[in-house]
Amino acid sequence: MNITERLQYIMKLNNLSASAFADKIEVQRSSISHILSGRNKPSLEFIQKVLAAFPKVSSDWLLTGNTTTNESNPSNQVQSEASPTYNSPTTSLNKHEGDKKIHKIVVFYTDNTFEEFRQR
Q1: pLDDT computed for residue 114 by the predictor
Q2: Using CA atoms, how far apart are residues 117 and 102, in angstroms rounded to an integer?
């Protein structure tokens, strides 16, 4: 179900025509027509107005079609992926710290691109 279908679903549940829906969320009727026909995608302001007019509608469901649960909270997943834990280096590596300098660091991304950082 795409966002247009979810908007139509909200309209159906509330027995609203496109015109009545536009009036309820305080947007121009042509905006609704263009979104429902697929000509335009809803803007952030439009989404905010829908969510303000229909407080029982989940923002996650409206945007993605997914319902959130405590077990699969996307913000927790992003946080855990962004901050992995590393073990501290052993003391045998630390005693050679004076003779070693970083020459370059290469970061590989999941889309098969990379960035190379060199000391200046």
Answers
A1: 82
A2: 10
* Helix/strand/coil for 64: helix
User: Per-residue pLDDT tens for 86-114?
Assistant: 555 555 555 555 677 777 888 888 887 88
Q: Which two tokens stand for residue 111?
A: 């889309």
Residue 81 CA to residue 74 CA, distance in Å, equals: 11
Separation between Cα atoms, residue 53 and residue 104, nearest integer Å: 53
The conformational region for residue 86 under phi > 0 = left, psi -120 to 50 = alpha, else beta, is: beta
Distance CA 120, CA 110 (A): 27
Fold of 3-64: 434 Repressor (Amino-terminal Domain) (1.10.260)
Taking only Cα atoms into account, the Rg of the chain, rounded to an integer number of angstroms, comes to 25
Alpha-carbon gap, residue 48 to 68, rounded angstroms:
18
Q: Give the whole-angstrom CA distance, residue 52 versus residue 60.
A: 14
